[in-house]
């Protein structure tokens, strides 16, 4: 498969979880338009050296400045501004391992990629840990989302174990390396274990 790659520092996309993005750079606005037109998904590439603005990429070579495992999804434009910028929701559809840069002729990065399969079945001995994680997430939402209607809509959306994990990793996990570790795990039970240890240690966003 091919992916359009959007390099970002300390931002990830998790399968089954959607995130909003404000796109203002013209080449990435074009990338979104091309993704919608062609059906090629957009991957959020976690930049290894956050803060470095210049990154070179060449056809036939790997992306050395982006972590190999990425989440990808399909964009939905929800707002267009008169200055040309757009606001999108990127709906997480899966996870992939980036390969070599494609010779696309575009100003944005196109990569060959291999889809990564995951186990989404929560084992019985992990159900209680999942319930605990879900409760902690709800408490966090009650504290940080003042509008009850917005909270209700969010809770309606975040239901499945994969969605709860994606929400957790996106908003409650403070360490970006741990966020990447959760993304790279291919088993929902391992992810629940990791979140459980984070809850016990207090290493979460306040």
Layout of helices and strands, plus pairs?
Layout: E1 2-8, E2 18-23, H1 26-38, E3 42-46, E4 69-80, E5 86-101, E6 109-116, H2 127-144, H3 148-157, H4 161-172, H5 176-184, H6 188-201
Parallel strand pairs: 1-3
Antiparallel strand pairs: 1-6, 2-5, 3-4, 4-5, 5-6
Description:
This protein has 206 residues and is α+β, with helices and mostly antiparallel strands. The protein has 2 domains: 2-116, LON domain-like (Archaeosine Trna-guanine Transglycosylase, Chain: A, domain 4, Roll); 124-201, no CATH class. The protein has helices spanning 26-38, 127-144, 148-157, 161-172, 176-184, 188-201; strands at residues 2-8, 18-23, 42-46, 69-80, 86-101, 109-116. The protein has a 5-stranded mixed beta barrel. Strand 4 (69-80) and strand 5 (86-101) form a beta hairpin. Helix 2 packs across helix 6 (188-201), helix 4 packs antiparallel against helix 5 (176-184) and helix 4 (161-172) packs parallel to helix 6 (188-201). The radius of gyration is 17 Å and the shape is globular.
Q: Write down the CATH topology of the largest domain.
A: Archaeosine Trna-guanine Transglycosylase, Chain: A, domain 4
CATH homology-level superfamily of the largest domain: LON domain-like
**Average residue pLDDT:** 90
Helix vs. strand class: alpha+beta
Tell me the domain tally: 2
CATH class of the largest domain: Mainly Beta
Question: Can you count the beta strands?
Answer: 6
Are there runs of 5+ residues with pLDDT below 50, and where? none
Helix % is 25-40%
Strand order of the largest sheet: 1-3-4-5-6
Shape: globular
The number of helices is 6
Strand content: 25-35%
Give the distance, in angstroms, between the N- and C-terminal Cα atoms: 39 Å
Question: Which architecture of the largest domain per CATH?
Answer: Roll
Radius of gyration: 17 Å
Largest sheet: 5 strands, mixed, barrel
């Amino acid at each position: 498969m091919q992916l359009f790659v959007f390099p970002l520092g300390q931002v990830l996309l998790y399968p089954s979880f959607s995130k909003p993005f404000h796109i203002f750079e013209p080449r990435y606005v074009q990338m979104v338009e091309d993704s919608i037109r062609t059906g090629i998904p957009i991957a959020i590439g976690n930049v290894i050296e956050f803060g470095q603005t210049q990154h070179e990429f060449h056809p036939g070579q790997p992306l050395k400045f982006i972590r190999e495992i990425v989440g990808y999804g399909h964009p939905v434009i929800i707002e267009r501004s008169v200055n040309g910028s757009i606001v999108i929701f990127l709906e997480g559809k899966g996870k992939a391992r980036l390969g070599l840069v494609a010779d696309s002729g575009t100003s944005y990065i196109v990569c060959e990629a291999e889809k990564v399969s995951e186990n989404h079945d929560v084992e019985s001995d992990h159900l209680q840990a999942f319930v605990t994680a879900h409760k902690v997430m709800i408490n966090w939402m009650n504290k940080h989302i003042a509008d009850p209607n917005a909270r209700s809509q969010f809770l309606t959306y975040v239901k499945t174990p994969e969605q709860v994990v994606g929400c957790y990793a996106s908003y409650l996990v403070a360490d970006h390396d741990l966020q990447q570790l959760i993304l790279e795990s291919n088993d929902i039970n391992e992810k629940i274990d990791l979140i459980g240890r984070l809850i016990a240690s207090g290493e979460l966003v306040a």
